[in-house]
Design a protein that fits this description.
alpha/beta; 2 domains; 18 strands; 27% helix; globular; T6SS Phospholipase effector Tle1-like catalytic domain-containing protein
Length: 467
């Protein structure tokens, strides 16, 4: 089941916001609590045992999704009939004191639920022009099974600082059979970003404290979070979308979208997509289902025939891609868990999911096949598209660049980072780890367009190109 929120600045508790309310919400995030509670309520009402909770968001919506994950971790998930306790649960979540963690622990002990997947696009560090934070917003400390983050290399506005996945600095022995964490210590400020190339890093394991009366002991095994954060070419809206119309075939935002959709399959989310919609977004559907095939980095440039069509503008609308697909019967089982009896009668055949897809190759379908452009060729052409830098497009953003904000500054001599208050003045983002992930299309843009990565890095940085 799917739930969608239009985002901060678009509605208040009574519905659509008027202009003043929307502006106030954008400034201070006044509607953030409504967004979190509404999404939490939906999960309360629809969750069934065995479901996989998957959260997605862009920009401040990503922040909201991470706060929601934090609330589910801190207070658990109330039963559907327990609506009266929702307000109390949210207040316990917001309470970052020892007493707040104690009361949350009572909820969590009864209503413990895990989040399976968090997928965010350029998550920002705070909500609104006036910074506002909530507990567990910087780190989804509920230990989701998978955390995926697409980040913008070229965003440089002061109020759009990227919020990386962060970790606590205290680690217990991974051989221990139980996970012990101190509720009072769990809300300590994180030390820094994790090294994301390993699924075993960035784990929120805490040292047990026998002297703390609020230490909880969970009998289930520790689940390490599989973390992957990848940098993409472009600014904020080039990663999350919105800068270019949906009818434009090639745009930078298509690349992280396809990457995130593939991560949904790689991470076994069980999300059911419409095959033709995936084809319209440029994905090679026949590599997704019934058997998932991971793509490798292309070793050659696109075939000349595709390049000529691209240069002449003859590729047509991307929605025509779906006409090159033909459904065929499949006997393979569905990757999704069996539906609950309350949702669908048992024994009912779910025929729409029982198929595979292939490309037509016979001569009679040549016209349809002409519309098909392989996924990585689509990525290649998307990587060549212009960026949408709001500091250049809308100079009024520069007003905020003159206001003092907390920034990361690099000490070149010590190859270290410090935090200070200063004017941002269009400064590019810091990348503090030594081996960050770079999407392969960024390298193609560098080779074809002379693009330069201008984020601030350590001297010994070594980019790891990923697909």
């Amino acid at each position: 089941m799917t739930y969608y929120q239009s985002g901060i600045g678009t509605y208040d508790a009574g519905g659509l916001s008027n202009g003043v309310a929307a502006a106030f919400d954008m400034a201070v995030g006044s509607g953030l609590g409504h967004h979190i509670r509404d999404a939490y309520r939906f999960i309360m009402q629809t969750y069934r045992e065995g479901d996989k909770i998957c959260l997605f968001g862009f920009s401040r919506g990503a922040y909201t999704a991470r706060c929601l994950a934090g609330m589910i971790h801190k207070v658990g998930l109330l039963p559907a009939h327990n609506q009266a306790q929702l307000a109390f649960a949210y207040e316990f979540y917001k309470d970052d004191t020892v007493e707040g963690w104690k009361m949350s622990g009572e909820f969590k002990r009864t209503f413990s639920i895990d989040v399976h997947f968090i997928g965010v696009f350029d998550s920002v560090a705070s909500v609104g022009f006036i910074p506002r934070t909530l507990p567990l917003s910087s780190t989804p400390k509920n230990k989701p099974a998978y955390f995926r983050h697409a980040m913008a290399l070229d965003e440089r506005r002061a109020k759009f600082k990227v919020a990386r996945y962060q970790r606590r600095d205290r680690i217990i022995d991974p051989a221990q059979q139980q996970h012990h964490h101190s509720l009072a210590a769990a809300h300590e400020q994180p030390e820094g970003p994790v090294r994301t190339f390993s699924a075993d890093l960035g784990v929120d394991k805490l040292t047990p404290d026998d002297s703390n009366p609020y230490t909880a002991h969970e009998t289930k095994p520790v689940q390490d979070t599989n973390i992957l954060e990848v940098w993409f070419a472009g600014c904020h809206a080039d990663v999350g979308g919105g800068a270019v119309g949906n009818d434009v075939r090639h745009k930078l935002s298509q690349i992280p979208l396809r990457w995130m959709l593939r991560q949904c399959f790689e991470c076994d989310t069980g999300i059911m997509f419409h095959a033709h919609r995936l084809a319209e977004e440029g994905l090679d559907v026949h590599t997704l289902w019934p058997k998932y095939t991971r793509l490798e980095r292309p070793k050659t440039e696109p075939p000349r025939a595709f390049v000529e069509k691209y240069e002449k503008g003859e590729l047509g609308h991307i929605r025509r891609r779906k006409t090159a697909l033909q459904p065929v019967p499949s006997s393979l089982p569905s990757p999704s868990p069996s539906p609950s009896p309350s949702r669908e009668p048992q024994g009912k055949k779910r025929e729409k999911e029982e198929y595979a897809l292939k490309i037509w190759h016979d001569a009679s379908q040549t016209q349809h096949a002409d519309y098909w452009v392989p996924e990585q060729v689509e990525d290649f052409f998307d990587a060549l598209q212009p960026m949408n830098d709001q500091l250049a497009v809308a100079p009024s953003w520069w007003i905020l660049e003159y206001l003092p904000v907390e920034v990361k500054l690099q000490n070149a001599e010590r190859n270290a980072w410090t935090t200070a208050w200063a004017m941002n003045m269009g400064m590019f983002r810091p990348v503090q780890e030594s081996d960050p992930h770079l999407h392969w299309t960024v390298q193609e843009r560098m080779d074809r367009e002379g693009y330069q990565v201008r984020v601030r890095t350590n001297r010994d940085v070594e980019w790891r190109v990923v697909v």
